[in-house]
Design brief:
By secondary structure, the chain is mainly β. It has helices at 32-39, 144-151, 268-271; strands at residues 56-58, 63-68, 77-82, 97-102, 106-110, 116-129, 135-143, 156-157, 168-173, 178-193, 196-204, 218-221, 227-234, 247-249, 255-256, 262-266. The chain has two domains: 56-158 and 272-278, Thrombin, subunit H (Beta Barrel); 168-268, Thrombin, subunit H (Beta Barrel).
Amino acid sequence: MNKPLASALFALLLTGAAAAPAMASVPQDAAPQARARAAAPRTPAAKAVTITYAGTVALSNCSGSLVRVPNSLASDPALVLSNGHCLETGFPEPGEVVKDYPSSRSFTLLTASGARAGTVRASKIAYGTMTDTDVSIYQLTKTYAQIQSQYGIAALTLNDTHPVQGSAIKVVSGYWKRTYSCNVDAFAYRLKEGDWTWKDSLRYTSSCNTIGGTSGSPVIDTTTGKVVAVNNTGNEDGETCTVNNPCEVDEAGHVTIHPGINYAEETYQIVACVGAGNKIDLSRPGCVLPKP
């Protein structure tokens, strides 16, 4: 795991011009409409959204983000997203789900530049688990409208669809005030680390070389600006399926490792589990998050 820094068990590890593309030529005797299509301007590529630290938070031992789902209202109590292994109650056991557990944990809310905007506080752990995924969701004492009014910070939106292979992404760590840029390399059918197993994990390309303290960072699609995953682990020592050395297990049971490569857990499935008032409702249609 990209370890929470307060854990004594898991110590911190710090660790010429491109050729122009060839243009296809159209024979002069080609149909006029074909020449017209060739001469027409190409559809411009989607522009990347500017990704800043606004909406990210620093925990005492991890990173996180102020998030909303597409249907959240300004009057709803705000939510903070991080990892299950960042919970102040300790690592949930395999099969364990923490739901509506009282918490007064504080989070440092950051501005676009990474400066401290202020402190927000939890009222409860709305949801937390390390089974199938590695996620914690805190409900705050303030609404989105109150945070926007007091600090000028808007929440990041969770994307409601599966991330796409090859997409450009950024991992934004509020703890370190550091951003990593890479692409979605692939998806692991199962990712096993120690006693925990996660489903359909997102594997980064190598430039997202995240470290301890980046756990819980939002993974943001640079085209949409939406959160598609939450950063959580990486294979640090080249071992197989041990703590801090996750292995991939395919549908046939074959095991592979990618030393030095890091992973995140997708967040689109959270959206279906958030009901009116931003309440985590595991009985909602389409909600597949593990239940207590």
